[in-house]
Amino acid sequence: MVDSGGAPGRLRPEDLPIIPGGEVAGTTPDGRRVVAVCGSGGYAELAVALRSLTFPVPDDVTDEQALPLLVQGLTAWYLLRQAARLVPGETVLVFGATGGVGSLAVQLARQFGAGAVIAAASAEKKRATALQLGASAAIDSDPAGLAERVLSSNGGRPVDVVLDAVGGAVFEQSVSALAPGGRLVAYGTAGGAPGEVSTRSLIIGSKAIVGYWLMDSLRTPGAGDTSLAELFELLKTGKLSPLVGSVYPLGEAAQAQLDVAERRTQGKVTLDPSR
């Protein structure tokens, strides 16, 4: 089983040809069940990954459950623990709240002691799903009037932490909705454009902008072992529920990519080479 998502950058002509697929779940030749970050080459029946980026899967965890916890789960864990340095009682705003990272970040923020979790999503169905995952409130992620909706959903108060994978106008509106001492963590530009902010808007209020990419953490040998084990334990005790999205046959990889790009999916979208 392989993740259908892509890398944070866009492919250039000189990068081609390439076999996509950065994350896989399956069985090694000696019979061990694992999940692994392979960078590319996952859209295949057989994939190769570095030993340092390969992690064991507990017997009572399925491939469909394990794969979302690898890149998306670890990203959500590091966003909250390391990048945002979430303090119990703080309010967290999560964009893409029913996507692979966002759906787990909503749940983990609760587990890590957030006072309130505000989910932002583009469709009513997705906002309803976010509330089912444990969000305190769910708002439309459209940039127009976004800062006002954020404040309204939080009793008129600005938020302490924003997890932003959208960029552009969403990023800019989110900065204006940050409380004094607040932190915005940027980890993607799904909206197609980067956000811009003036230094003055950060200085007044002592706000912080932090960038994050999981692979920077995983370059350290052994990184991810303890946090992934914690995610598996939260899963097994029923405190974390990965939002498993659609599963496509390998031959429908192009359609899977289109559905993700056009935001028709929720949760972790995967390809199954056995289909």
What do you see in this structure?
The protein is an alpha/beta fold and 275 residues long. Helices cover 33% and strands 22% of the residues. The strands form three sheets. Strands 7-6-5-8-9-10 form a six-stranded parallel sheet, with helices on both faces. Strands 1-12-11 form a three-stranded mixed sheet, with helices on both faces. It has a three-stranded antiparallel sheet with strand order 2-3-4, covered by helices on one side. The model has no long low-confidence stretch (mean pLDDT 92).
Précis, in short:
The chain is of the alpha/beta class and about 280 residues long. It has helices spanning about 65-85, 100-110, 125-130, 145-155, 170-175, 200-205, 215-220, 225-235, 255-260, and strands at about 1-5, 25, 35, 55, 90-95, 115-120, 135-140, 160-165, 180-185, 210, 245-250, 270. The termini are close together.
Helices and strands, in order, run as: EEEEHEHEHEHEHEHEHHEHE
Mean pLDDT: 92
Low-confidence stretches: none
DSSP strand tally = 12
Share of residues in helices:
25-40%
Name its key features:
275 residues; alpha/beta; six-stranded parallel β-sheet; 9 helices; globular
Topology of this structure?
Elements: E1 2-3, E2 23-27, E3 33-37, E4 54-56, H1 63-83, E5 91-95, H2 100-111, E6 116-121, H3 124-132, E7 137-140, H4 146-153, E8 159-164, H5 168-176, E9 178-186, H6 199-203, E10 208-211, H7 214-218, H8 225-236, E11 244-249, H9 253-261, E12 268-272
Parallel strand pairs: 5-6, 5-8, 6-7, 8-9, 9-10, 11-12
Antiparallel strand pairs: 1-12, 2-3, 3-4
Helix pairs in contact: 1-2, 1-8
